[in-house]
Design brief:
Keywords: DNA replication, DNA-binding, DNA-directed RNA polymerase, Magnesium, Metal-binding, Nucleotidyltransferase, Primosome, Transcription, Transferase, Zinc, Zinc-finger. This is DNA primase. The chain is an alpha+beta fold. The protein is 51% helix and 8% strand.
Amino acid sequence: MSLPPGFLDELRTRISLSDVVGKKVMWDQRKSNMAKGDLWAPCPFHHEKTASFHVDDRKGFYYCFGCQAKGDALKFVTETENVGFMEAVEILAGEAGLEMPKRDPRAQEKQDRRTLLAEVMEQAVQFFRLQLKTGAAQEARSYLDRRGLTPQALDRWEIGFAPDGWQNLWDALRSKGMAEDLILGAGLAKPSNKGGKPYDTFRNRIMFPIRDARGRAIAFGGRAMDPNDMAKYLNSPETELFDKGRSLYNHGPARSAAGRGSPLVVAEGYMDVIALVEGGFASSVAPLGTAITENQLQMLWRMSPEPIIALDGDTAGLRAAMRLIDMALPLLEAGKSLRFAIMPDGKDPDDLLRAEGAGAVQVVLDRAMPMVKLLWQRETEGKVFDSPERKAALDKSLREKIKLIRDPSIRKHYGDDVKELRWQLFRGNRPTASKGFERKANGFRDGTRAPWRGKSVVASPVSTTRASLVAAADEGAVVRMRESVVLATVISTPDVITEYESNLDRLTCADMEHGVLRDVVLRIGVDAPERLHDEIEYALGPGTLENLMRLRHVAISAGVRNPGDVETARLVLAEEFAKLEAAKGLDVELAEAAEDIRSLEDEAVTWRLGQAAEARNQAVRSESEDRAQYDIADNGVRMNRDERDSFNALLDRISPSKD
């Protein structure tokens, strides 16, 4: 509806901003000067004890020096009442005694009929409330008492009872002069197919009035008392007043509570909403007999940017959540999303409240998961991905879902999160690093990650060992030395990470802390190399990179001395990976040969062991050269006594002394 020129100016001249704001705040008498229209109060938009909220009544504007909220009377009403602009205009026009502009005749006629229908509905609300106090409603009162509803709660929610019988409500409304077409038009009665009087829509049911955002009764929900009734819950048919796909139970009060900062909770039914509100969760609503529609979702987002969908923890509740995801994905916008709180053990919010109290519900709401994680759960739960084909099927399914998102920025972030979850599923369970990773780097892109709270993963060497990583000079130290050079090289030149991703993935990491760092490099470096340094510091602690890079054998490496030089990094990595693979293969060959000796002695085994011994000699010479390069004092490969004795015995067996 468009407003005629000058209407808003006239409205602003008729209302006083201080009167509008004064209904929501307590003025600070010491700072305020009423005569000059200079008023101060604690801000209604954020919690504070000092009066930083200023109203200039003469200019008609307010401003908070704490949270920077500002605007005029219309803006104040839209913010505090959580209503739209036109609704704010209607509210202020009513207070100012200013008649709203007339609509065209047809629109006015339609509005007048809607007003009459709302009056009929109000009469029905009163009739049902009175019936709940009669003897015929004894069983209904007992049921409500068992559900924990006090008499005060029954009054607050205007709960009533439709007695058994065909024309109880019809006769009552007709006796008050209500027109037959209005009773039928409000959905309170249905015409008879046999030519008799119309009969009541609701019979032998507990009645829940449904009101729109403005507080008008527009429909009813009825809970059957007869366990054999075909429909346990029955809503009013759709009418000129009631469109169930565009209505929410407890809409108006929940909208006001959400405007005051209360989290918006979406439950499944009337009793859940009543229980939640009575338990302290004031901004709670429910759809009306159907899954959440697109219109209802837009209504929810107008109330809160991130509603919490609180669903029963049973199969039906989970199915409803999954359907909602498919409907919501194309509608997502920056700052508008959903979180899902799944109730435990098949309970609904009402069950959990009565069994464990509001604290237990709050815990579930605090743990509500973002939509991307529920989407991932749907696509992976109960499935086995033990073949490339099954993994490819998962990738295809997730891609199809993410394509539904219209906003390119949100689509990218969903892709990033799914890629990270996929990484955890297929690669994140390596025994060398998974525990350390979970403890030190729980997530990178979502809000659930824990900030760094401990020491750096790559520990700083003590002063007595800084000159050499391998002061003990055993084979494990040599492997760790090579691992640290590899990691330092890819961090210095992250452009090569994609090229060597498979090599890094196969890197077993003798040092578990290197495994943690390797996981971070793979998770971030492939997709966002520009963020690699920041993410390592965030996840593994300040000083991590400094401690790694200042190790002497790392600092003198060509890959570290020439950061960003892709060709140099490739040469370093090719050499280090080749030596690591050779050492790994040698260990496997020696282990297999030793096993063969224990089971069978023949020429083939002798030949294999001879080859292994020669490889060992070459490795010793190679490591001696490497140690000289890294300025390592010890020029040999040091073994412990048992290893040396075993190896010498094997050599004697292959090449016995000529003496």
